[in-house]
Model the fold of this input.
Amino acid sequence: MINEEIILPDPNVTCADCAACCCRLDVTLLTETGVPDRFIEVDEFGAQYMVHLQDGWCAALDRGTMKCTIYENRPLVCREFVMGDYECLFERAANAESGEGA
Done:
């Protein structure tokens, strides 16, 4: 019998008190969700990625509200990024250590 531990997301973590740490990650577009072309860059192999501006943040992030301007059409990777789970906590900690957020 295999006993797998299930780790639930931290309910104390919310996007409301985060500096959009996940919006600094590289996002590959794996499926068609309707992301506007102005937010997409294509590499030499034809792979599509979300554009990041010189400040390191996703181009679709509103810098004033720190919210996604294309939330309804955000990429699959963004849809699957779970608030408060391991990846979220890792990115928040990494940004806190670098002094860039959270």
In short: The CA atoms of residues 81 and 87 lie 8 Å apart. The first helix runs from residue 76 to 80. The two ends are 40 Å apart (CA to CA).
